[in-house]
Amino acid sequence: MKNIASIFLSISLLFQTFNGVKAGFLCVGDTFLANSSYRQNRDSLFSSLASQVITNRGFYNASLNSVHAVSLCRRGYERQACINCVEKAIRLIKTSCSDKVDSFNWNGDDADQVSCFVRTTNHSTFQKLELGPATRDASNLDIDSSKNMTLFRQEWEATVNRTLADATVNTSASVLKYYGVVNAEFVEFPNVYMMMQCTPDITSGECKRCLEECVTYFRDVSWGKQGGTVGRPSCLFRWDLYSFYGAFANKTRVPAPPRPLIPQAQPISLTSLKELIVRLRNRKKKLVVCSYYFQVSFYDVSVLISFVWLVCTEDDCISDSQFMLRFDLSMVLLATGDFSPENKIGQGGFGSVYKGILPSGEEIAVKRLKRGSGQGGIEFRNEVLLLTRLQHRNLVKLLGFCSEGEEDILIYEHVPNSSLDHFIFNEEKRVLLTWNVRYRIIEGVARGLIYLHEDSQLRIIHRDLKASNILLDAEMNPKVSDFGMARLFNMDQTRGVTRRRVGTFGYMAPEYIKNGRFSAKTDVYSFGVVLLEMITGQSNKNYFESLGLPAYAWKCWVAGEAVRIIDPVLSRTPTNEILRFIHIGLLCVQENVAKRPTMSLVIQWLGSDTIAIPLPTIAAFTMTELHRTDAMDQAKGEAGTLSLNKLSVSELSPR
């Protein structure tokens, strides 16, 4: 397996070398004298441009006398990589545009894993849409025309529309607000990777127009090529058949029809399949790799891999075709210092979480499941099955797994700011959660749930959404994590019933606790609880004596005293906006399941203060007097967290 991964990586890098597409560079306008004040002023701006971009969170606009300069980096940039990219663009401008008044450079180098933009002019471009001049680069390779080009065109256009929609949604959550990346699985072609970005000083409508002009330019001039880039002064469009710039670390995957199994892949016999199921049920821990096919041709390089993964729980048995990175145990031990206590950053109901560093320098979070834990085995299979197929910027990324001997280990991206509960429920850290930050977190979680419920290839019900399962990256963007309790639905299935309740008491919808019925609306309920916790700055469990936070918020709402539940830290935020969010939260936690909104509707309400929102009905009481004592006794977890069947107990430190 290790050798296969190495060969695959080498071939991928070889392919990128021949197919590399760089971004655009252009010198235009009048010339100036070598000793002119224009050059001196431009060089003066250049001297601090890279550091100013970092200081201003990725975008900087400045002027000195008659010289104007603009620069930005791709969203998600690393500090030093951004600086290096800007400085490289400046050197190129000084060398190739030494005497030109107007120049711009969308500088992208796959080796640098970043893209950036630098422009100089003799007139102000700030808050002005500028479509020209345009630069274009295209791959030297042509698309294989022997395949279904009509289908390719349809899928390519769908990918354009999705990336355009992502890039032009102005949430104001980041300085670099206009940015979208999509990884699309095509039926008869390799995955297509697409990125769009605009300078953040223009409007959303202007950004859309600029990107549409870029796409049209590529269609008209370079259609049929395996990737290309079009750059304009206000925006950039790029697509390719491999992941470039490192831009797809948190990518949105466009749903696509399931790929047919590779004809050459060796089929598994019915007898072998039955034997594997028996082995899996007996051990209840292992992910089974059934078959693969690998072929490399020197002249026609191709890599064909097919894995059949069988995953069984007490409720269902699922098979799926996927590829995923499998780590050697020796590599995991090296990364974590043999699971050194100094590297331990969390303790959960299924095991411990460690911080690790790969030889490449990449930081990872390693979840080591408890040996002999049957439920841990179910969580292991669930996470590997689901997260290999779920890619979204608001979902934690599973990098791979390790399953050797009695060790079952999950390897995730490292998310430096721990989980939401370490901030929102901490008196000192909560002051860092300004209203803008809380808004960004609430909206990000909502978008992650929309992806799970509606936009992914699968329909996923998370079933354990809570503050401790929402991780925060370096910019305080949320990532929903812990999919060990999640359930997979067919796309035409909307609800289910289970004998075993899993999740965390206080976040579980009443119909799920009482009858085992769950649907997307059970996640909506959990989201409503988290939203109300974000408003109050208090944990739901603090309100158990009053039957839970939803019930308490409802009583205050009915009494016209909803402002009482607002966190004092938010005293400078307009009350009307916070009351609107309380309103939305109460709609999510309604007792009547049918009246709870979908997450798509929630995201519309969150983003607009002009849309009419219906009045909420009575909130669901998390506990009744009849169930309270027994349920609380049953749900006491190892760390004091309330959960059913001890399935969700967690104490997390920064990951």
General description of the model:
The protein is α+β, with helices and mostly antiparallel strands. It folds into 4 domains: 21-126, Gnk2 domain, C-X8-C-X2-C motif (Killer Toxin P4, Chain A), CATH 3.30.430.20; 149-254, Killer Toxin P4, Chain A (2-Layer Sandwich), CATH 3.30.430.20; 329-372 and 392-413, Phosphorylase Kinase, domain 1; 421-652, Orthogonal Bundle (Transferase(Phosphotransferase), domain 1). 34% of the residues lie in helices and 21% in strands. It contains 16 helices and 27 strands. The strands form 7 sheets. A 7-stranded mixed sheet has the order 15-19-20-18-17-16-27, sandwiched between helices. Strands 6-9-10-8-7-11 form a 6-stranded mixed sheet, covered by helices on one side. A hairpin with a 2-residue loop joins strand 19 and strand 20 (407-413). The longest helix has 21 residues, at 435-455. The protein is globular. 43% of the residues are buried. Residues 1-23, 255-281, 283-323, 490-494 and 622-655 have low confidence and may be disordered.
Q: CATH topology of the largest domain, what is it called?
A: Transferase(Phosphotransferase), domain 1
Strand order of the largest sheet: 15-19-20-18-17-16-27
- The whole-angstrom Rg is 26 Å
Specify the CATH architecture of the largest domain: Orthogonal Bundle
Describe the secondary-structure layout.
Blueprint: H1 2-19, E1 25-31, H2 37-55, E2 59-64, E3 67-73, H3 79-96, E4 100-109, E5 114-121, E6 135-138, H4 149-167, E7 179-184, E8 192-198, H5 204-222, E9 228-232, E10 235-240, E11 252-254, H6 270-283, E12 288-289, E13 308-312, E14 317-321, E15 325-326, H7 329-336, E16 344-348, E17 351-357, E18 363-369, H8 374-387, E19 398-404, E20 407-413, H9 421-424, H10 435-455, E21 459-461, E22 470-472, E23 478-480, E24 487-489, E25 495-497, H11 510-515, E26 517-519, H12 520-536, H13 549-558, H14 575-588, H15 599-607, H16 625-635, E27 650-652
Parallel strand pairs: 7-11, 15-19
Antiparallel strand pairs: 1-4, 2-3, 3-5, 4-5, 6-9, 7-8, 8-10, 9-10, 12-13, 13-14, 16-17, 16-27, 17-18, 18-20, 19-20, 21-24, 22-23, 25-26
Helix pairs in contact: 2-3, 4-5, 10-12, 10-15, 12-14, 13-14
